[in-house]
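worker-3 :: picked IPO4/5-like TPR repeats domain-containing protein
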Amino acid sequence: MSTEHLLGDIGAVLSALNGIANEPRREAELHLQKLTVEQPAEVLLLLSQVGALAVGGFQLDERFLSLILLKSLAFKPLPGLYLNSQHQLPSAPFDVIRETTRGRIETVLCAGLKDELDPRIRKGLGMCSASWAEESHKRKRPARPFVPVCLELTQSPIAFHRFTSFQLLGYTPTLVDDAADGPLSSSQLTALLLTGLEDSSVDVRLEAIKATKSLLIRALTHEARDEVGEILIQASFQTLQNLPQDLVPIGLIPLVELASIHPKLFISSLPLIITKLLPLLSPPSQGRNLPPYAFSPYPAHDMTLEAWEAFANPATELLLSLAELRPNEFEEFENGRALSEMVGLLLGREVATFEMDCQEWMEEEDLDDEDVNYPVFPEEALDRLSVAASYTDESMEIIYSSLLKHVQALLQQEDWRCRFAALMGVGCVAEAFGDAIVDRDILSAISPTAKDPHPRVRYAFLQCIGQILTDGLDALQTDYGRDTLHIILHLLDDPVMRVRVHAAASLTTFFEGEEHPEIVGEVLDRIDQALATLGTVAMAAKDMFRPYYRNLMDLCFQIMSAQLGPSKEERVVQGGAIECGYMLAIALGGTWSQENPGDALKFVQLLLSIQNTIVDEDDPRSRHLMDAWEHMCDSLGQQFAPFLQYVIPPLLKTASYRPQKASPMKTSLAPSDADDEDDPYWGDELSDKAEAFKHLGFYASKMRENFAPWLAQSMGLCLEELNHPYAESVKNVAAYLVPALLAVAKESGAWNTDPENYVQAFRQLIKAMVNALDISVISILFKSFKDALRVVHTPFPPDLTRRLLKASTAIVYNLAQARADRKEQEPYMDETDHEYWIEEQLEEDQCLKRIEEAVDGIVIVGGSEEGQAMGALSGGIENDILGLKALIKKVGAQKLETKGYDDDDDDNETLRGDQGS
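worker-3 :: tokens ->
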């Protein structure tokens, strides 16, 4: 096979793609795709020759690009390229070319792996060859030529040749199964990896750590992993000890993933691991202005925060994984030393991450903006550490004692960051420690910080109290409720706006979920200070609130009817008044409109007036309006009908939104992902669209026949969405809307003169079942079908029933094939894969159940007198139904076994269960 005739075309493509002009790049992509469809074998072979053997005399950039293109094109289904011309399903070039051509390409790649000297090209060759071998393995075709080359390269005197062998094993650990004389034994693999871990080249050692991770996770059996895993982990950490500081993160990251999946392998090396990693968590000193406080016995690192985080983050994550997945062994290390020291180290990180100056924080007006510099990492880590320790009393005591020691000392420091960190540390462990936080000394230690001279410390006090309240600690509200409330009320008058806002949020949290009749009156006297909390307080006070209703609702009416200026803050306040108003109505219950005649009408009139003034899509009042309309509809019932004309059209407009252009990030050569139906480029718009369908469903269900004027448009949009190729979230809510709309049609009689509308609705549902790919979407569609059939309760025409049975049978056969493939792979699954497929299996079981329920519904309506008269189940339909139900039963019994693994934390879960009981 000659490829010379393509050199000119490929050279032009490579030149254009390496350029910066967009239009030539786009034309080059299209031309390359056209060439690949017309001559797939020649194109793939030439790309491999250019990249691996420098055929054509191209520069390094063009050679490297050709390897990228080979990796991208070979396994991407291309329109116009078919393995079977009758079915015309797009196929990947790899699947179309002859086996002899595949072999030639592998020979070319192997030659490049042996002889190439340029480090950049070698990396590209390694990635391309690994991808080729991995995809070939997925197709049950062993890529045998790569195995001897990989083993041969480990003995090369050239370091970068040795690097490539471990690069291949790291990217494609399945190579160990593809050797011509059978899979490599565990002893051979261990010797191979240990040689790499002890190599004289630091690059080879790092790549060997990555290969060790990949092989232990993806290639070895449970028995082999148990046999050699601990040896390899110990060798990896010994290698890690001898790496330069800036390269430690590269070696740590693979081990983090390994620890989260197979923590048992790390147990014998725990002393080495903990001793190596704990000092890495000590914060840096450059530019941090650290206080003179010893958070741990380890010295601070003389480096920048960014450089330190590079290795501190993976080190922390690895230690947390071991603490979570093997808590007993972690606690036993030197009587809890690791747990105790990690508390101080994480508090030290909290302090080191903050800048001393917080003027910008105080002046920030948009409180919804997330502070990108806030130290989220240490707080989340401390929370995870406390949860991991909460399964044994001994571990909890270690954490508590260490925390109390640091909190008491940090609260005495002049540096406000220390006092802040102490408070946030208490809030982080609140969920795990429960009422013990309140019952012991910590609460009394932190109380004085409510009057701290620094605003961020007062803010942190409220955050800490809010976290304790959020975690449902009854002791705070029961034993210290009045004192806590007075402190929060005092902070409502704080001179710093952000502290006042946080005090209002804490007040809301205080009254959520629980009734406090003995102290709620103390709030109502000052309630006008925090409009955002009014509704929550009203719902907590219930009957006690009635004397205050009139004044507060009038206040809401006054704010809602006010003429606003251009300020966004005024619209935010008016939105809060809308929310507060409808929550006041909810607080009074079903007697609201009787006890306060005229309030409901006035409220909806004000809502309409505000809605007519909104011109900006991001107006903060819009969100409150939608909720308020629904609550008014719920309260007024059918009396709300005159206002539907103002509510439904905006919802229909939002529900009819359609993306008009492709995402700018997509190109024809970008790898496609069939599971990625929701393009994030339109995330907000599609979220609004889904919300609009939810609101339509509410009004259709609530107003029934009064919704009829919008039935046709709503149903048209709904059925259109079911078969649209994007946005599963929209499909789901649209499917749930169909039965509600059919109920509107039936009760209003809107379709009595044209019953074909009912048939069309079911026809589109069945079409959506055929087109759906995701099992959860299919399940929802069958539920929608069953509910819709129950609403209409009319026999189906036989041809429509046959469509449903054909679609259902095809879906069940697909599930059967998927389960058979999964069962075949079960012996090779690790714990993570097995748990994932068990969850997938549960979704499939639910789908099978819903298919059977839909078919049962067909039998019920078809067996009625009307159904028998029209022959709804005639012509072999009954036999087809029986066959489908038998198939469903057979596929439902085809399951993976639920079982434990020696190297996961099942033993640990059992231990936790014993302690909990």
